[in-house]
């Protein structure tokens, strides 16, 4: 399915007046509206190839309708999102769930829809058909070198796919760990993992980055071999300048101060990118901003402040990816909400009066520091996002247009009512 430009124009014409009224109001309130709109236009969020079908839990999966069954259809779905919001111009691929059989035509399709390839993801947390050794007791950390070798080779293969598609980063998330005390020698598990990472790192193209994603627990419940940002940073520091830590918002122990983690990783030049989602308990992978939008804003404030300090380009110098997927929403509507939430938080962060905050910090004026932050958080930045979309020829209200055009019904008509999409 393809959304013709005139449908977007018609939709926008209807909503234009109301939008202009709201934009005028907020622009009068803030100092840097034009600057924020320009930054928002540049900011793109990568959609994970595993989030386009309805997610499941270990207790079941209720398949949606009209879901994409092939990589081509997944890219087409991202094309729809991007046409609606002009903010989803990238895909993060998962191998082997989405092996690009014909890289040339996949690349051409993505290019036609304005989509580039963000980090490719390897998978050594499941056994694949025809694989010689099992990952039941881990992959890159395994006690047996031949299992580690198999996992290393898988990662090298993923890099090859990424190279063919024009990606320039690999995200490695390991489920390696232990579920019972005594199961592992922690030091040996670390050293085996490091040695495996080193072999992958040696073969990383010179202009690539390696993202090391940590996770506190699940599927292992006693220890994880890359369990927190300290361990990830340790690996990344030992590996070298192309290795970075990746922060998945759902991968912390309850109440962790993620914004502080982000700030310090940036300070060390070791923050690589993000997996955005939201959670109340653990790795819930809920829609971004659905549970704790204030935390998201605080994280974005640290990002903007820390990136500006290091003269980094907000749009291009970190990997911005969503990693959310669940049971009860239409996945495309869910992703529209997630992208919107990310950009709202980003815009709010750009609004913070940094000078005033700095002065308050210097004076130990705790009350004023909170006022400055919350003043930005409580500003409705949505008209700025809308204006950025309008200028990029996207829809004023992407979710509304998705429903008005009955996109899901059309996809069901084309693809049939039930399809099992791969993915978690
Ligand atoms: C797993 O919990 C991690 O969040 C991974 O980043 C991701 O969900 C997985 O790699 C899907 O490919
Ligand atoms: Zn993740
Ligand atoms: Zn996760
Ligand atoms: Zn997650």
UniProtKB/TrEMBL annotation:
<dbReference type="GO" id="GO:0016853">
    <property type="term" value="F:isomerase activity"/>
</dbReference>
<protein>
    <submittedName>
        <fullName>Sugar isomerase</fullName>
    </submittedName>
</protein>
<dbReference type="InterPro" id="IPR050337">
    <property type="entry name" value="L-rhamnose_isomerase"/>
</dbReference>
<feature type="coiled-coil region">
    <location>
        <begin position="16"/>
        <end position="43"/>
    </location>
</feature>
<keyword id="KW-0479">Metal-binding</keyword>
<keyword id="KW-0413">Isomerase</keyword>
<dbReference type="InterPro" id="IPR036237">
    <property type="entry name" value="Xyl_isomerase-like_sf"/>
</dbReference>
<keyword id="KW-0175">Coiled coil</keyword>
<keyword id="KW-0464">Manganese</keyword>
């Amino acid at each position: 399915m393809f959304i013709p430009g005139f449908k977007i124009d018609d939709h926008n014409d209807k909503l234009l007046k109301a939008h202009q009224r709201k934009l005028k109001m907020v622009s009068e309130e803030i100092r840097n509206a034009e600057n924020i709109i320009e930054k928002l236009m540049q900011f793109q969020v990568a959609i994970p190839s595993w989030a386009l079908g309805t997610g499941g839990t270990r207790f079941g999966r209720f398949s949606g309708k009209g879901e994409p069954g092939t990589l081509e259809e997944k890219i087409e779905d991202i094309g729809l999102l991007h046409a609606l919001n002009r903010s989803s111009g990238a895909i993060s691929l998962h191998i082997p769930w989405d092996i690009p059989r014909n890289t040339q035509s996949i690349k051409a399709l993505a290019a036609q829809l304005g989509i580039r390839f963000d980090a490719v993801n390897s998978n050594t947390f499941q056994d694949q058909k025809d694989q010689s050794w099992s990952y039941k007791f881990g992959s890159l950390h395994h006690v047996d070198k031949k299992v580690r070798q198999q996992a290393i080779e898988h990662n090298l293969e993923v890099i090859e796919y990424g190279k063919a598609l024009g990606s320039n980063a690999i995200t490695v998330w390991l489920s390696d760990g232990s579920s019972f005390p005594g199961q592992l020698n922690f030091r040996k598990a670390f050293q085996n993992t490091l040695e495996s990472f080193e072999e992958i790192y040696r073969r990383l193209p010179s202009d690539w980055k390696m993202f090391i994603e940590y996770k506190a627990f699940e599927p292992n419940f006693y220890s994880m071999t890359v369990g927190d940002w300290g361990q990830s940073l340790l690996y990344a520091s030992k590996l070298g300048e192309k290795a970075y830590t990746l922060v998945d918002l759902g991968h912390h122990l309850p109440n962790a101060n993620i914004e502080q983690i982000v700030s310090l990783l940036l300070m060390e030049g070791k923050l690589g990118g993000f997996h955005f989602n939201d959670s109340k308990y653990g790795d819930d992978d809920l829609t971004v901003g659905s549970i704790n939008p204030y935390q998201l804003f605080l994280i974005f404030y640290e990002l903007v402040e820390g990136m500006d300090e290091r003269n980094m380009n907000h749009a291009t110098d970190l990997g911005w990816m969503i990693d959310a997927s669940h049971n009860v929403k239409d996945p495309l509507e869910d992703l529209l909400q997630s992208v919107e939430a990310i950009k709202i938080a980003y815009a709010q962060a750009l609004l913070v009066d940094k000078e005033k905050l700095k002065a308050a910090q210097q004076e130990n004026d705790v009350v004023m520091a909170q006022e400055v932050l919350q003043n930005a958080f409580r500003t409705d930045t949505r008209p700025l996002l809308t204006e950025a979309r309008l200028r990029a020829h996207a829809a004023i209200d992407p979710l509304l247009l998705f429903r008005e055009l009955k996109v899901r019904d059309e996809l069901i008509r084309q693809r049939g009512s039930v399809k099992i999409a791969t993915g978690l």
